[in-house]
């Protein structure tokens, strides 16, 4: 475990000695969205290589565990699913676009973990229940849930139709709640006390 406090910041490039982690200074962590990866600069004077080794070691306990990621066919959800598979997790990817999930599965087929694509509309309780039942039957249950699927609108409240508002609630609130309920049930049934549920806001 890392004893240093990690604080997310935006990195403006910095000096060469800062990039190498030579200077002893407060913790820096930056995120490049276009590369979908964390860049560790300095943790209380420790080098990037040292910190990376500790983080990699901390991830070993999750190898072989089961994660469900909603909205896994594109964007943030796709990146999360991909990285978890690369870390050795068994990932159940849920999305409406099965073809994109299958493309991702093929891309990570040589990774330590594995991706299981399942077509699932988060507005459909039937689809959600079927996905979690499949996970229980084939992978014994869920250890991690990433509620990534979500929709939004750029219109004002008075411009939105009732059907548009209902869709937002169905995905962002009801769908998320049903997934969370099923994940918690799965964890409790198996006595999992270190499970994680991650909600991504939009």
UniProtKB/TrEMBL annotation:
It comes from the Eukaryota. InterPro entries: NAD(P)-bd_dom_sf, SDR_fam. The keyword Disulfide bond does not apply. Pfam families: adh_short (PF00106). GO terms for molecular function: oxidoreductase activity. Keywords: Oxidoreductase. Belongs to the short-chain dehydrogenases/reductases (SDR) family. This is Dehydrogenase/reductase SDR family member 11.
């Amino acid at each position: 475990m890392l004893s240093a406090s990690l604080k997310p910041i935006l990195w403006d490039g910095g000096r060469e000695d800062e990039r190498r982690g030579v200077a002893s200074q407060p913790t820096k962590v930056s995120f490049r969205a276009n590369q979908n990866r964390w860049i560790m600069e300095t943790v209380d004077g420790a080098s990037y290589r040292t910190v990376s080794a500790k983080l990699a070691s901390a991830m070993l306990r999750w190898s072989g565990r089961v994660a469900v990621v909603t909205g896994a066919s594109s964007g943030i959800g796709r990146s999360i699913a991909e990285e978890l598979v690369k870390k050795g997790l068994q990932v159940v990817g849920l999305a409406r676009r099965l073809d994109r999930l299958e493309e991702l599965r093929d891309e990570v087929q040589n990774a330590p973990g594995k991706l299981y694509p399942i077509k699932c509309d988060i507005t459909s309780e039937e689809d959600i229940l079927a996905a979690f039942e499949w996970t229980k039957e084939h992978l014994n249950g869920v250890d991690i849930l990433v509620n990534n699927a979500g929709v939004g609108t750029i219109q004002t409240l008075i411009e939105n139709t009732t059907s548009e508002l209902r869709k937002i609630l169905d995905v962002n609130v009801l769908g998320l709640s049903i997934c969370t309920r099923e994940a918690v049930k799965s964890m409790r049934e198996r006595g999992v006390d270190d499970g994680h549920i991650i909600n991504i806001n939009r």
